[in-house]
Design goal:
This protein is α+β, with helices and mostly antiparallel strands. The protein folds into two domains: 7-213, Ferritin, CATH 1.20.1260.10; 235-310, Immunoglobulins (Immunoglobulin-like). Helix content is 41%, strand content 16%. It has helices spanning 7-11, 25-28, 43-67, 70-74, 79-82, 84-114, 132-154, 160-183, 199-206, and strands at residues 123-125, 210-213, 235-237, 241-243, 258-265, 268-271, 279-282, 286-295, 301-310. The strands form three sheets. It has a four-stranded mixed beta sheet with strand order 3-9-8-5, with no helix packed on it. Strands 4-7-6 form a three-stranded antiparallel beta sheet, with no helix packed on it. A two-stranded antiparallel ribbon has the order 1-2. α3 (43-67) runs antiparallel to α7 and α7 runs antiparallel to α8 (160-183). The protein is elongated.
Amino acid sequence: MENTITRSSRRSFFSTGALTLGAGAAALTIAPRAAQAQTGVTDLQILNFALGLEHLEAAFYNQGLARFSASDFASAAFVPLVGTLVAAKAFDNLKAVQEHENTHVETLRTVIRSLGGTPVAACQYNFGVTNFNGFLATAAVLEGVGVMAYTGALGMIQNPDLRTAGATIATVEARHAAYLNLLLSDIPFPAATDMTRTMAEILTAAGPFITTCTAVDTGGGGTATTKAVAGPKNATTVQKFFSLDGTASTSSNGAPLTYNWIVLSGTAGMTKSTTAMPSVQFGVSGPYTFELTVTDSTGVKATDTVTVNYFGH
């Protein structure tokens, strides 16, 4: 029951029985750019993985704090456990957490766009919360998932600046989790080290809260979530050697893509045409058009093209 908050009920969320996919494919589309395999994952995929989780947390607080008010806190089950001084500040503190989660969403969106990627869209959620006690218990679960997700993902990020930026969010998520533990009379810092989870495990944990997801249209072809994104768009160069970029492409099931680039127009040489970032060598000045085809692990293909204007000497 939601009006009875216990350690065992929250911990059982992470048990084998509770960790079902629930929403099926929707559980995977929370982060369509995040490969579940722990190899071959790009920084953009990891950032969109994080954004998918931040969408989830932001939606939870936006919905819950629109429904519950400061007066709901006064009669909540946690008040006699933590005392009136702590309880009196709880509503304002959770409003601050709400602001943090929405800020995390906007920050990740900005960073992803600055790197030439397309931010993953928010899903539709059902948190199953019917009273304030249940709201607190679910908040503790989501914050715990967030901490484990960032802890696991930080080591996979290649760019040191992005790794540092991710760490600044991870530490705030840990503070959120500690505060929720305190309100629920759990130890705020239960262990000397935090647990980590793989992307697949995190998506499984988030799955029961997700009802439907809308795919992001990146402008490429293919299915709803398998998209080829050839870049850089609208590029002009005087350099004879040039790198193309397909790292913003996405797969339908989160598994790594295979890449194949070809020259559609112009006299150009190409090396590493089966990688995300091949190198091309231009001939005479003029526009050159290249086509990228990506294939996901289920065999679904998608294509996109990019034109580069070369002005040689």
